[in-house]
Structures
1.
Amino acid sequence: GAAGRPGVTRRRLGHAAAAALALLLAAGGAAAQADRAAPSGSARPQNGVPAAAGSGMAPLPVGSQAAPLTLAAAEARLLERNLAVLAARRGVDAARAQRLVASSLPPPVVSAGNTVAQFNETSRGLQGARFLSPTNNFSVGLSVLIERGGKRTLRTRLAEEQIGVAEAQVLDALRTQLFQLRQGFLGALLARANLEVALANRASLDSTETLLRRQVRDGAIPEGDLLRFQASRIVFEADVPNNARAYAAGVAAVAALLDADPAAFQPGAGTPAALGLGRGRGVLSPVAFDLRVRFDAPPPPLGLGREELGAAVASRADVVAATRQAAAAAANRALAEAARSRDVTLDTSWGRTRLQQDLPNAQVNANNTFGLGVSIPIFTGRIVEGNVGVAGAQQSQAELAARQALLGARAEFAAAWAAWEQARALLALYTGGALARAEEAYRSTEQAYAAGGRSLIDVLDALRTLNQTRLAANQARYAALLALAALEQATGVSGIAPRL
C-alpha cells in the first residue's frame, strides 16, 4: 500500500514526524511553557519527571532529609550561625573587656617582709647569732604609680574607638557573608533551573525516541532519521550531569555558610532508583538542603537612584571601620604624646623589729621605722619620641587606608551599578520577546518539516537554539538577581537584594 504510493508515504511521514516532534516543543524547559496554562501552584507530570509551576520549584529526588530552604530562611539562619559573623561578635566582646582594663587606675603594689635571723659583727667576727620569730620582726610597704598627662582618659578613649572598630567589623562581616550566601544561593538556583530544563529535555527526548522507534518498526520513517536523532540528542545529555554537579556544589557552599554539614544527606538520594531512570543514568547527587524558590519571578524594583546609592557608599561598614580605625590611631598617638609627662611612683613603708637596740640609758622594747620615697624615670626622651613617631606613622597609614577603603568602595559601586544596568537590559531582551521568538522559530521549523520543506536535522537545530535561548534566559535572570545582591553589597544599603 503505502510503500507503493510515495505521496501518501510522504504525507504519512510528515504527520507522524510532526506528531513526534511536537513533544520536543516542550524540551529545554518545557515545564514552564506547559504550566503557564495550568492553575497557579499546580504541577503536571511529564514522563515520570514532575514539572513544577515555576522554574526552581520542581521537586527533585534529593532525599527526605534535604528540607526545602528559601533565601529568606537562609539569611535568618546566617545571622545566628555563620561562623565569621560569630567570630566578629566575639571581637566586640574582647574590645569591651579591654575598655575595662584601659579605664582602670594603675593598681597599687603592697609588699611585706620580716627579719628571721640576727648576727652581731665585732672585731673578733660574728657573735650572738640567733634566729627570730617572724611575728616580732616585719615590714610593710605600699607603692602607688601616679599617672600624669591624662593617660587614663586617653587610654579609655582609645579603647572606645576600638569598640567602634569592632562593631563596624561585625557589620562588615555580615555584609560580606550575606553576599556570599546570596551569590551561592543564586548560583545553585541557576543550576537547579537549568537542571529542570535538562531533565525535561531528557524526558521529552526519551518519549520522542520511543515514538520514532515505533515509526521505524512500522516502516513510516527511514531508520536514518532515528539514527540522526540519536546522534543529535547527545548534546542534551551532558546538560543533566553538569547542572546536577553545579547544583550539588552550590548547595554545599550554602550549607557551609550556615554552619551546616555539607555532606549531611540521606544515603541513596540521587541513585538511578530514586530518579526512576535506568542503570547508569542516575546523576543527581544528594544534597544537604533543597533550594526551592521561584527563579523566574521578575526582580524587584530598585527604588533608589544612582546618586542616592553613591552617597550611601561612605556609610558602608568596611569604610566606617577604616574611618574608626584612623580615629583610634589618632587616639593612640595622643596617648604616646602623653608619655612626655613623666609618671611618679610614690613608695611608703613601715617596719617594726624587736631586735636588741644599742641605745644608751634607755630600755627599748621595739623599734618602729617609717619611710617615704618618690621615684621618677629619667633619660626617657628618646624612647618617648620614638613611640610618638611610630604612633604618628601608624595614624598616617590608617588615614590613607580609610581613604583607600572609600575609593575602593566607590569603585565597587560603579562596577555593580554598571553590572545592574547591563543585566537589566539583557533580561528585558529575553523577557521582551527573544525567548518567544526562539519558540516561534522552532514551531515554524517543525511545521516546515511536517510539510516536507525541512529536514529532521533542521528541526533539531531549531530545538538546540531554543534550548540555548532558554538557558540564556535563566542566565540573564541569575545575572539580574546577582547584580541586585552585588549592588547591596557594594553600597551597604539593605533591601536592594531580591527576597526569594
2.
Amino acid sequence: RARPVASRQANPRGTVCGWGLEVTGRFAPELAARRGLGAGARRDQPDDLVCNSCALLDVFTEEILEGWGLVIAEGRVAYAGPGVEKFESVARIEGRGHVIAPGLVEGHTHLFRMGLGATVPLQLAAGVTTTVFEAMELGYILGPDGVRELLADAAGMPGRVLFTVPTLTGLDPVMDRDIGIPGKQWVELLDLPGIIGVGEANWVEVIRGHPRVEALTAGAHVRGLTVEGHGAGAREPVLNPFAAYGISADHEGLDAEDTLN
C-alpha cells in the first residue's frame, strides 16, 4: 500500500524513484550489475535500499510471506526473504503493516482526451508502475515526429512509460496516401529508448501485405521486439497466415467465439 513518490526520469526506459534508484527496462543486467547484486546479497557491501518487517506477496505461489523483506542493489532485487534487518543499506523503509507486491503492468492502452502528464500519475497511484502506450493517435497527425514528442514528454513522467511504433493500419486509401511518410522513417523509431515494439497491426492490412506494416514487422524481428496484433473478426484461413507474419499477440476479440479462435 505504500507508494513511492517518483521524480524525474533519467531516461525513457527507466525511472528514478523517490529512493534515488534507477529502475531499468533491461531484463538482463550487465556483468558489473550482476557482481554488485551478488555482493549485496552476500552482505559484502552496503545495499541501496532495505524494505523490512513486511509481508511479501509471492505471485507465483499466491502466498503472503509474513516477516519477509527485500534488499535492493543496482536498481534490482538482490535478496528476498526473512532477516533483511541484518543488511547494511543506504536507505531503509519500515514496512510493518504493509504488503510488498510487484507493480502492475498495463500492456496496451491509448491516450484519449488526456495527455501523459494527466494519465501516468493516475496509473501510478493505482499501482501500475509500467504502462505501454499505443502512439497511433499522435502518429496519425504528426507522423514519426509525433512519436518522438511523446518519448520526450515521457522522460519527465513517474513510473516506467513505454511506447509501440504505430502501423497506422485501418485507414482508408486517401488517408493512408496522405501520410506520405516512407516506412524507413517509422522503422528508425524502433531504435529509440522507450520503444518496445510495433503497435497493433490490423489483420486486414497484414494479409494484404501493406508495405509499411511489412517494413515495421521485419524491423521489429531483427531487433528482437514484438509486434502487437489487431485480429478482431479474423477467421480461418486468415489466422494462421496472420501469425506466420510474426504477429505475437492479439489484444481483443469481438466475442467469446472470436477470442477462442
